[in-house]
Specification:
Layout: H1 2-52, H2 57-74, H3 77-93, H4 97-104, H5 117-133, H6 141-147, H7 150-173, H8 177-194, H9 197-213, H10 217-231, H11 237-251, H12 256-268, H13 275-288, H14 292-300, H15 309-328, H16 332-348, H17 352-368, H18 372-398, H19 401-438, H20 443-506, H21 508-523, H22 529-560, E1 569-572, H23 573-576, H24 578-590, E2 594-598, E3 604-607, H25 609-626, E4 632-639, E5 643-650, H26 657-661, H27 683-694, E6 698-703, E7 709-716
Parallel strand pairs: 2-4
Antiparallel strand pairs: 1-3, 4-5, 5-7, 6-7
Helix pairs in contact: 1-2, 1-3, 2-3, 3-4, 3-5, 4-5, 5-19, 7-8, 7-9, 8-9, 9-10, 9-11, 10-11, 11-12, 12-13, 13-14, 13-15, 14-15, 15-16, 15-17, 16-17, 17-18, 20-22, 21-22, 22-27, 24-25, 25-27
Length: 718
């Protein structure tokens, strides 16, 4: 019987629990339905208000007020902002700018909670236009105070200062520091006129924090001291704590004792401070006091408090500072380990800027310790991370909230100008109708008056249209300049990439060959003399290739910067080519190649000597390189009334059509891949073609596989 009673109780409790769950689900569903219905009502009322905002502003205002009443019940900040903007539009139609400010000013306190930048831009633009129309930007404040009622004036100034502070906070939030400083300076100026130390201290504190974001540390420190001077006159421990904590943060690395004193003053205010913030600050003070081991232990306590991207960035930046302190104390092993941890972690989570600083410091440590290979490896990693960061920054700048907000504000200002024109036209039409009814002057006078009014309106419209056209032309010019700069930057980046590719790959192979040859020479000290002679030949060829490559790289870099100018002079071709021909004959005899030179001793030419020698040396060197033993090379000249031609032909292996077409180009395939041989980079031929163009001539190549190659250099005959 007792078991049955227990079972009955259990069943009753189970059904009760199921009933509670169903009731809770029903309540949640009802709440969701109510929110959806409220949103639909607000959207419908705002849509009606927008339809009547120009033609019937009072009716539009009625609909918007109804929507605002519903939005205030649901406590939706963005919905309230949309409703108040609709009310402000109805006041704008009748030019009641004071009512616009009374409607929109309550939004300023919650401006940072609105994530829709379109709404924020429209609020700021409407408030700015209202202040401008009321003369707050043009009438001196002293005159404004004298002409207005004192109580009313102070209320207006406090409202303006509150708006400026809200705008400054918003610009600080989206990272537009210059704009934030501009608006907060205006707020400080107005609060200093009002004379309220609490508001003035808060404005100066906000201005100091904006200067810290803009890296103006000295200015920020002065402003913080001034803020404390005002805040000490009132009972605001929260603001005092913020000022002392901010002072402690900016002094942590430069003056740790002073920073500790500021931190103690902040804690003495007995106001809750963010535990993460205090822990980070203590770590920085310990690191700056040459106590990095304690700093490491302290910073570990901050990790559980991280709850935002900004705090994560601050956490790893502090660890980087501690690593710097370890390196300064010459605790190299611990410093390197901490640097590697910071670099790997920040690179993986996207904090590239911290990783860039860490890799640079690591490279410096390895350089000081005499480990160039490790330093070069870290520097390559540093360059890779920095390139990724710069590319990401360029993309972010195009789509940043600050630039988006500026574009929205410009669009709203243009729209406001157009609306003002429409309102002015509407008022002009109404005034003309009143004049026609009220004035009984002769018809001729009335027509004359109308004509004069129309002519003036046409002139004003024509002037404004002209101004708009000029602005459009200026914008087009700026866009063209930006496009040109972008193309130029892309070309420079491509040039840089090609240069690094050549240095990274083509200097490596000849140096490895040099190392191998030297090793063979050392191992073959007891071998026969012929073997040593062969090793010396390989070494000599590797040195020659390396020197030629370095010369080509130097000439190429100078040509990219337009540092090589065309300087023509008259010279004898056979005499100037004597040294090059002698060197070529030595190489030809070593490879058993028949080299035949047929250049008239009386041949004179007027052109740039250095460019001519560079072209001849490169093409003849290629012919010697690609001609096998028992091969033949012929150098001949031809003269006509317009050109002098030098032809260099060989009986080498020749080239395919694809190779011939890409002969004067630099591409990645020439520097990387399995097809890479000792054929070189092609940089010498590319420079030769550029020099020939500067000389006013051409280089033409003809080749067939297994049938050799013919190069013809043509220059003007002056």
């Amino acid at each position: 019987m007792r078991c049955l009673s227990i079972k009955m109780v259990f069943v009753v409790l189970l059904f009760s629990l199921i009933g509670d769950i169903c009731f809770a689900q029903n309540v949640s569903q009802v709440k969701a339905d109510n929110v959806a219905r409220s949103n639909w009502q607000i959207d419908s009322l705002i849509s009606l208000s927008e339809q009547y905002s120009i033609t019937r502003p009072k009716k539009a205002r009625t609909f918007a007020l109804q929507a605002l009443e519903i939005a205030e019940k649901t406590k939706g900040i963005e919905q309230q902002a949309v409703c108040r903007l609709s009310i402000a539009k109805s006041y704008k139609t009748v030019r009641d700018y004071n009512s616009i400010l009374q409607t929109l000013n309550p939004l300023l306190a919650n401006l940072n909670e609105i994530d829709n930048y379109d709404i924020v831009a429209e609020i700021l633009n409407s408030i700015g236009i209202a202040h401008y129309q009321l003369g707050h930007d043009t009438i001196p404040l002293s005159k404004y105070i004298n002409e207005k009622n004192l109580d009313r004036t102070q209320s207006d100034l406090e409202s303006i200062s509150l708006g400026l502070k809200a705008i400054g906070r918003f610009y600080s939030k989206i990272g537009s520091n210059e704009k934030a400083i501009e608006f907060l300076k205006k707020s400080v100026r107005i609060d200093s006129i009002i004379g309220n130390p609490e508001h003035l201290g808060e404005s100066i504190l906000l201005l100091a924090k904006a200067n810290i974001q803009a890296q103006n540390i000295v200015t920020a420190e002065t402003l913080l001291q001034e803020s404390l001077f005002n805040l000490k006159k009132v009972n605001r421990p929260d603001l005092n704590m913020e000022a002392y904590t901010t002072l402690a943060e900016i002094c942590a690395l430069s003056n740790p004792l002073q920073s500790q004193e500021y931190l103690n003053l902040a804690l003495a205010e007995k106001v809750p401070i963010d535990s993460f913030r205090v822990t980070i600050l203590k770590s920085l003070i310990q690191a700056a006091s040459n106590n990095p081991d304690s700093a490491i232990e302290t910073i570990k306590k901050a990790k559980p408090f991280i709850n935002s991207v900004k705090q994560n960035e601050e956490y790893w930046s502090t660890r980087l500072v501690i690593a710097n302190s370890l390196w300064q104390k010459r605790n190299t092993v611990s410093a390197i380990a901490l640097y590697n941890e910071v670099v790997d972690s920040t690179n993986n989570i996207g904090l590239k800027q911290i990783a860039i600083k860490g890799t640079f410091q690591l490279a410096e440590i390895y350089t000081v310790r005499g480990k160039p290979l490790e330093a070069n490896r870290i520097l390559l990693k540093h360059l890779s991370i920095r390139n990724e960061f710069e590319l990401k920054q360029r993309k972010l700048q195009k789509n940043s909230p600050a630039s988006s907000l500026e574009r929205k504000l410009d669009a709203y200002q243009r729209e406001a100008k157009l609306q003002n024109l429409i309102i002015e036209k509407e008022e002009t039409r109404r005034n003309l109708l009143l004049i026609l009814v009220a004035i009984t002057l002769p018809l001729l006078v009335l027509i004359s008056f109308l004509l004069v009014g129309r002519i003036r309106a046409s002139k004003v419209l024509a002037l404004r249209n002209k101004q708009i056209e000029q602005q459009n032309e200026e914008l087009n010019t700026i866009n063209e300049q930006l496009l040109h700069s972008q193309h130029k930057l892309m070309r420079l980046n491509q040039t840089k990439d090609k240069f690094f590719s050549i240095v990274a790959h083509d200097l490596k192979s000849p140096l490895v060959a040099l190392k191998t040859s030297v090793y063979n020479m050392r191992q073959s000290m007891q071998v026969v003399e012929n073997t040593q002679h062969g090793n010396l030949s390989v070494l000599e060829e590797a040195l020659t290739n390396t020197i030629n490559l370095l010369n080509n790289l130097l000439f190429w870099a100078l040509s990219q910067e337009d540092s090589i100018e065309f300087q023509p002079e008259e010279f004898n071709v056979a005499e100037c080519l004597e040294v090059e021909v002698t060197n070529a004959k030595l190489i030809a005899s070593h490879k058993n190649i028949a080299l035949k030179i047929d250049i008239p001793k009386s041949l004179q030419v007027e052109t740039d000597l250095n460019m001519f020698l560079f072209i001849f040396r490169n093409i003849l060197s290629n012919a010697l390189k690609f001609t096998p033993e028992q091969g033949k090379i012929f150098v001949t000249t031809a003269i006509n009334s317009n050109n002098i031609s030098v032809t260099i032909s060989d009986t080498g292996k020749g080239m395919t059509t694809e190779e011939l077409n890409s002969l004067f180009e630099i591409s990645e395939e020439k520097f990387r891949g399995k097809k890479r041989t000792n054929s070189g980079t092609g940089l010498g031929l590319l420079l030769s073609k550029e020099f020939a163009a500067k000389m006013g001539g051409t280089i033409v190549a003809k080749s067939e596989v297994d049938n050799g190659t013919v190069f013809t250099i043509s220059i003007p005959n002056k």
